[in-house]
Amino acid sequence: MNWIYLVVAGCFEVVWASTMKLSEGFTKLNYDVYTVIGMILSFVFLSQATKSLPLSVAYPIWTGIGAVGSIVVGYVFFKDQVSNWTWVFILLLLISIIGIKITSKS
Fold first, then answer.
1. End-to-end Cα spacing for the chain
2. What is the mean pLDDT of residues 12-26?
3. Residue 80: CB partners within 8 Å, gap ≥ 6?
4. Is the pTM of this model over 0.85?
5. One cellular component GO annotation, for this chain's record (predicted)?
6. 18, 34, 38, 95: which has the fewest Cβ within 10 Å?
């Protein structure tokens, strides 16, 4: 269950990062609220995951999910330009996330 909490926490990190962009510098109240809710939920699920997962495993995976997810959301929904080299490094990041999971003793 701790890994599910961690994945959900990472997904909420993507949510709050995306809604923060949509809030346009915290000038749109509805997106401001979604951002804060996303932050709170992300931290709640991360705190649940770290009850049984080591911080040295949970934190890099959480940030990795957030980073990769934010890049994908930026590319798909915000039409961010992503170079071929950036995709290579995203792939390396994914490999690193999977490697941390596989090699952890949890």
1. 11
2. 97
3. 71, 74
4. yes
5. plasma membrane
6. 95
